[in-house]
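Hi, here's the filled form for the chain we discussed.

Project: internal
Contact: R.S.
Residues: 547
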Amino acid sequence: MITVTDLSRRHGMRTLFEQANLQLNAGSRYGIVGANGSGKSTLLRILASQESASGGSVQMPRNARVGVLEQDHFQYEDARVLDVVMMGNPMLWAAMVQQEELLANAHERFDDDRYMLLEDIILANDGYTLEARAGAILEGLGIPTAQHERPLRELSGGYKLRVLLGQTLAANPDVLLLDEPTNHLDILAIRWLEEFLGEYRGCAAIVSHDHRFLDTVCTHIVDVDYERVTMYPGTYADFEERKAEDRERLEAEIAGREKEIADHKAFVARFKAKASKARQAQSRQKRIERIVIEDLPRSSRRYPGFRFKARRQSGRLVLKVQGLGRDFGPRTVLDQVSFEVHRGDRVAIIGPNGIGKSTLLKILVGALPADRGSFEWGHEVDLGYFPQDHRDALGDPDQTVSSALWEVCPREGLGAIMGRLAAVLFTRDDADQRVGNLSGGEAARLLFARIGAPEPTVLVLDEPTNHLDLEGIEALAAALSEYDGTIVFVSHDRWFVDQLATRVIAVGPRGIDDYPGTYAEYLARDTVDHLDRAAVVAAARRERARS
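And the returned structure, exactly as it came back:
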């Protein structure tokens, strides 16, 4: 389906990868993995013909339909949500629109030949089932039928991106190229996407940092690291094991060659002046010259140095919430929510899809008003907030990376700012980039640097791991575990919650379950695992059956 030959990509003096050779086939699903900035998204854009390579070629069947996950929802703001999804197949959508126009104007003039040509296009592309398929995809992605008739502009940013994902899937392309498709999905929607991709018969290439998703979906892993692109058959877990073995083997081979050279050099140094051994010494010298040791490129996997410290101690009672409620139209998402947070707590807010976890955090930081109840932050509370739509929190997209950080610590010198940026993996050249040009992972790292600089006493984090790579997630968990303040967070990453939470508040339709302990201890009580996809799907089905 897709043949990649000697593909290389460089940015200035920096090599992302070189001489990549891949064969991507229909019926297989390829997970593209690597550190932020390693070149995995660049590789995907080259496959999609959105970016040029520095060398090599990509070949694809001429008539292959390629589906690429877009990020620009602004061009569809006034369109009906259902129509946006159906636009995923432009030729089919244009034929359907033109056919409707012909029928609408049939009383004036009707072009039989044009109508039949459009009918052939619609039938060939299964157009008469498109609306039903688009609706089912939207439902699967967590967008209920009641919202399908609304203009896209009425949805939140995260849900708009779900609609764009639905647009890509509804087109039924021969090739699917998806960059971080799970970022704005909850557990139910991720589970639905896993099932959709499991039944997909085309060729799919997916960039993702969600290792459970990759394990479930992918038949192969494409690793972008060490300035190379290497394919491994099997799951993500298989890949991790094989990659470690391959690296150990290469290092052992190099060590063996280095030892061989050292032995030959020792022999030459000892016997080159001895007549009876001179010929052997010369022979060994030639053997040394024939031994080739290739330098192993450095891994692109890097761990950011996140740092969080409370500049002073807050009061013992950090937060008091009483009878909090919030409605969206006729729908109640939060009702009678009451709890207290004490100094040093690391509180994981969990619960089923749509129950209002992010809404609760937005209310607590003042981004949304409550309809009922009250909350009060305690003495000496200074908030650091990481929103789910974290790009907006970085301010002006035209400002530079360095100015975005300087904005929150204006008294620091340039050296200190550069030091803070270097800790979260920005170089001096990166410091002059526009904030609007940052990748999702880069924007997240910059925001964490901004949040940490004023040394807040309380951190409120909404899905903080969404755009981070594995190394970033591990570094964030370690930094937050050492933080001497209080944390209230929402996350669907089971590993992250296991590492961090010292208290669990489960929000449900009949109130909250406040458990003082780790997530593993919470689960030991035979409660629903809200971070396990199969368990969440089963619970949702039981809830629908009751209602």
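Let me know if anything looks off before we file it.
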